[in-house]
């Protein structure tokens, strides 16, 4: 009996769904698609820092370089407790062989900064204390989710404007939305990042007082949101 009841409920559900679909198709409607795009400057910049004794040919230990790095970053206003993290817990124990007899240690860190100017200061500052292995890992935008929602709203509004413009010459109007499809939200420039000037050479004769921030121009993050909307024709 339960099986019969479940079967009847399923059939009724399918019938109602088909009826609703038929009613939707029977109504005159206009399909419009809209794309809305925005570009933002990344406000979270992740730098990968490799500290290795090879930079000083084994003359300075990783521990000494690590202390120098911490002092240099703090002098630049970096909160190392919040912005500096060890990339891998095993990084403390990484070693490699040089010339089959010398064992040199290294450590890998990730540093978070919030603008390109600070990134430039960090690169120059670390270069001055014999830490030259600094690379751009990735960039992010902290309010990305809020931006996605905003772009969806604007894309829907744009779709309605397009529908009204198409129907106006016909003396018709766009009614309520019968169907909305959030097609996709594309991101460009988040993982495929570039930084001009990131590998600029450092002049050893340059005094620390002469430091100028590197002219780094990070690729902007492009966010695209597209929707398709069916409007009833009145």
UniProtKB/TrEMBL annotation:
Coiled-coil annotated residue ranges, if any: 134-164
Pfam families: SIMPL
GO biological process, one term: DNA damage response
UniProt keyword DNA-binding present: no
The UniProt record lists the keyword Transmembrane helix: no
Matching InterPro entries: 26kDa_periplasmic_antigen, SIMPL/DUF541
Signal peptide: 1-19
Alphabetic keyword roster: Coiled coil, Signal
PANTHER family attached to this UniProt entry: SLR1258 PROTEIN (PTHR34387)
Protein name, UniProt field: DUF541 domain-containing protein
């Amino acid at each position: 009996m339960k099986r019969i009841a479940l079967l009847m409920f399923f059939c009724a559900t399918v019938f109602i769904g088909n009826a609703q679909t038929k009613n939707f198709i029977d109504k005159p409607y206009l399909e419009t698609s809209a794309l809305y795009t925005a570009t933002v400057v990344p406000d979270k910049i992740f730098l990968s820092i490799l500290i290795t004794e090879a930079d000083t040919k084994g003359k300075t230990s990783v521990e000494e370089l690590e202390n120098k790095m911490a002092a240099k970053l703090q002098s630049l206003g970096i909160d190392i407790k919040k912005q500096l993290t060890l990339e891998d817990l095993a990084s403390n124990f990484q070693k490699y062989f040089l010339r089959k007899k010398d064992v040199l240690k290294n450590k890998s860190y990730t540093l978070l900064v919030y603008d390109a100017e600070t990134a430039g200061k960090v690169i120059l500052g670390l270069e001055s204390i014999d830490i030259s292995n600094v690379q751009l890992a990735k960039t992010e935008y902290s309010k990305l989710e809020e931006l996605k929602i905003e772009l969806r709203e604007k894309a829907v509004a744009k779709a309605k404007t397009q529908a009204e413009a198409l129907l106006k010459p016909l003396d018709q109007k766009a009614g309520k939305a019968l169907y909305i499809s959030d097609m996709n939200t594309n991101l460009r420039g988040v993982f495929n990042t570039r930084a001009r000037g990131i590998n600029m050479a450092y002049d050893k004769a340059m005094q620390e007082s002469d430091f100028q921030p590197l002219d780094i121009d990070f690729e902007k993050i492009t966010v695209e949101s597209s929707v398709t909307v069916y409007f009833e024709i009145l």
